Amino acid sequence: MTPSTADLADLAAVASEAVQAPGDYLREAFRDGHVDGSYDSLDVKAVADREAQRRIRTVVETHYPTHAFDGEESTTTADSDFRWVVDPLDGTNNFASGYPKFASAVAVLYNSEPIVCAIYEPLVDSLYVAERGGGATLDGEPLVADSELPLEHGTVALVIGLSAVTDPTLTKNAETLELELRTHCKRVVTTWAPCVDWGLLAQGCIEGLVAFHPDGYEQYAGSLLAAESGIEAVDTVETNGQYIGSADSATTARLVEVVDSL
After folding, report:
1. Comparing C-alpha atoms, which of 231, 203, 193 is closest to residue 93?
2. What is the CATH number of the domain that holds 239?
3. N or C: the chain end with fewer CB closer than 10 Å?
4. pLDDT above 70: residue 219
């Protein structure tokens, strides 16, 4: 049975509770300045990731023990139409290096489609929530993406997934994409915390977002937040690893032309 409006509201309430559960812990761990974990040339696996996920998972399983849980740090399988996709610490490299841009993200999928999401930025205490067909909010207030800046004076976030970073051909393509985008807008930003970028997009604080082979743990939550805040998007992640979105169709079309020209 398709989830009702009441079901979505309940899922959103639990997603909000879950994504905020590690907030105090992450704030304190970040400000402490010492990050335990394993490091390599491409990524960081911090103790904070595992602890944040444990706190999120506890909330989810308390309310929905029969749902599947798919976390970046661990997964559980269940015979359920519902799957919780969780990035407990989006921006681990930032967190480990002391750069204050990171978030936690939760997306609830029903038959593989995102229907609810919540994103929380602990340092600024900002909570984004979206329900499929029910709109988006920021700290409980309705969220509508809007920007009056033309693309040539605006900012575009570029999100590059780990699969692209680890593939030499895709890495070269991503570098070419970034250089080309820079000729069409004032600045291109890569925060290495995609959910922070999604929040900026949903608020209209940036003019566009291009995702290149993004990681699913952030993409599900981010794309739903964008859609429910009114972002016009061309989403072909499943077929060719690309997402292009902005607050108006003309800007989206221009960004699509840039990407397709490469």
Report:
1. 193
2. 3.40.190.80
3. N
4. yes
In 80-135, where does DSSP find H-type helix? 92-97
- Around Cβ 113, how many Cβ atoms within 10 Å? 10
Element spanning 186, H or E: none
Main-chain phi, psi angles of 46, to 5 degrees = -95, 150
Identify whether residues 134 and 15 lie together within a single domain: yes
SS3 6: helix
Q: Could you tell me whether strands 68-71 and 75-76 are parallel, antiparallel, or unpaired per DSSP bridges?
A: antiparallel
Element (H, E) at 87: strand 82-90
Q: Averaged over 211-223, what is the pLDDT?
A: 96
- Do 214 and 160 reside in the same domain of the chain? yes
Query: Is a pLDDT exceeding 70 seen at residue 174?
Result: yes
Strand order in the sheet with 113-121: 75-76, 68-71, 82-90, 103-110, 113-121, 126-131, 135-138, 141-142
Residues 212/159, Cβ–Cβ less than 8 Å? yes
CB proximity list for 167: less than 8 A, separation 6 or greater: none
C-alpha–C-alpha distance, residues 86 and 218, integer Å: 8
| Alpha-carbon distances of 83 from 63, 65, 66, 180, rounded to whole Å | 13, 11, 10, 37
CA-to-CA separations, 61 to 15, 18, 151, in angstroms, rounded: 11, 10, 44
Domain of residue 79 covers: 5-142
Q: Are residues 108 and 168 in the same domain?
A: no
Q: List 75's β-bridge partners, or say none.
A: 70
For the stretch 47-84, pLDDT in tens is 899 999 999 999 999 999 999 999 987 777 778 999 99
| Backbone angle region of 128, left / alpha / beta, with phi > 0 → left and psi within -120 to 50 → alpha | beta
* Residue 132 and residue 53 share a domain: yes
